[in-house]
Write a structure and sequence with these properties.
single chain, Alpha-Beta Plaits, six-stranded mixed sheet, about 15% strand, alpha/beta, Aminopeptidase, binds zinc ion
């Protein structure tokens, strides 16, 4: 028996429209109380209460990650498990400069829309809250803890400006903490007795700057000094910096990381300091490889809803996200929705201020409807997931994605 997805889709869209005001209020409330990585307690409370009121069975602190959650809604029989993800962390000092208040609303709206028609569909819908995308790697922690076991496909949407995209690549990355230790001494009367830890950091920056010219154009190595000493008249005995090391694929990124470590070792040797270098394992983000059969469904629904969706350009400037880690183990999508016609840089005050405007909220709600319709397609028509799995297996054979290990 085939399922009338048109009729179900119309019902799901109505269910989202019925909650429009409540969803906008939810998004604005998360925006007004920005919480950084792994501290998103109020946002989680709001999102899980919303899901519960719509009939989801919610587990908070999912898989031991305090500010994660999972809300399940079951269909009328066995079938695939589709996960719709939400992010809700803010940036330190800047607040919601990445618009995760919209991601949270989109994920919740789409989940509620699908749930309203699940009595006519097989399978399970899982609304999974994934904290700490901005550097903390909530999805990495969840993957490691088995939080995506049994999930067949995962989907979420990220806000951007200018043009909506069905998907684009992202950079594989690592965050690295670098510390140099030396010996303190009076900077004027006994400088020869000191070992200058700050010189280790400065030499590292110089080495990195020299290396940069010999890197591929997609590689990114950038850092800040987090500790440079305490007083000008004291030779610093401790100095520290944080770096990100990124590239388009993991193999080259690891090569750049090895060269970065050599830069740090060389700096320590030259300055006589002791080096401690820590690669943050949770913040080791993989590059994104989105599922084209599922992304095509989202694009189809966006167009049917009167929206334009563009192809990513090859020279697209991109960042990194822990959604890359999810995409390495299952077919998944992460489209970008333009919440502003004009281009506004991400992680900026202007973007933060824009993501609560009516224009942004309306655009996000349309994207959420298209996401709900996409999830309904996956649950209703086994061929969509079959095509997605076939593409994933071909990519795995070519070493483009890892698969489950
Ligand atoms: Zn973001």
């Amino acid at each position: 028996m085939s399922i009338d997805t048109k009729a179900l889709g119309a019902r799901a869209v109505n269910a989202i429209d019925d909650r429009r005001d409540a969803l906008f209020t939810l998004s604005r409330a998360i925006h007004a109380k920005p919480e950084i990585a792994f501290q998103e307690r109020e946002a989680v409370l709001r999102l899980t209460e919303f899901l519960e009121s719509a009939g989801f069975a919610v587990e908070r602190g999912y898989r031991g990650v305090e500010t994660s959650y999972r809300g399940d809604a079951r269909g009328r029989g066995p079938g695939p498990t589709v996960a719709i993800l939400a992010e809700y962390d803010a940036l330190p000092e800047l607040g919601h400069g990445c618009g995760h208040n919209l991601i949270a609303m989109i994920g919740t709206a789409a989940a509620v829309g699908v749930q309203s028609v699940l009595d006519s569909l097989p399978g399970t819908l899982a609304a999974i809250g994934t904290p700490a995308e901005e550097g903390g790697g909530g999805k990495v922690a969840l993957l490691r803890a088995g939080g995506f076991d049994g999930v067949d496909t995962a989907m979420m949407i990220h806000p951007t400006s200018g043009r909506s995209l069905a998907g684009r690549h992202s950079l594989a990355s690592n965050r690295v903490m670098v510390e140099f230790r030396g010996r303190a001494a009076h900077a004027a009367s006994q400088p020869d007795q000191g070992i200058n830890a700050l010189d280790g950091i400065l030499q590292l920056f110089n080495n990195v700057n020299a290396m940069r010219q010999q890197l591929r154009p997609d590689a990114r190595v950038h850092g800040i000094i987090t500790n440079g000493g305490s007083a000008a008249n004291v030779i610093p005995d401790y100095a520290a910096a944080r770096f990100s090391v990124r590239a388009l694929d993991r193999r080259y990124q690891q090569e750049v990381l090895r060269r970065f470590i050599a830069c740090a070792e060389g700096a320590a040797k030259a300055t006589g300091t002791e080096l401690a270098l820590t690669v943050n394992e949770n913040a080791g983000y993989e590059n994104m490889v989105f599922s084209t059969p599922i992304a095509e469904r989202w694009t189809h629904h966006m167009k049917a809803l009167g929206q334009q969706v563009f192809e990513a350009r090859d020279e697209e400037r991109v960042g990194s996200t822990d959604m890359g880690n999810v995409m390495q183990v299952m077919p998944a999508i992460h489209p970008y929705i333009a919440v502003s016609q004009e281009t506004i840089p991400g992680h900026s005050i202007a973007f933060r201020d824009h993501v609560v405007t009516p224009e942004a909220l309306d655009a996000a709600l349309v994207a959420a409807k298209a996401l709900a319709l996409t999830a309904i397609d996956v649950l209703a028509d086994p061929r969509v997931l079959e095509r997605a799995r076939r593409e994933f297996e071909e990519r795995r054979a070519r070493g483009v994605v890892k698969g489950r290990q």
